[in-house]
Please model this.
Amino acid sequence: MEKLCKIILSQILKIDDVELTVAIGDSQIRLFDTPDFELQAMLTGQPQ
Model:
């Protein structure tokens, strides 16, 4: 499931070699190792 989510999200976001962790419990998607900090903040709901 996690591998599938990584593939889908990397294709949608057009980000290569990004580490994704999907926390299904709170439906929260966190992106790490991406240079797009605004995208990261938007998806995690965390301010810079």
About this structure: The chain has two helices and two strands. Strands lie at 19-23, 28-32. Confidence is low (pLDDT under 50) at residues 23-28. Helices lie at 2-13, 37-44.
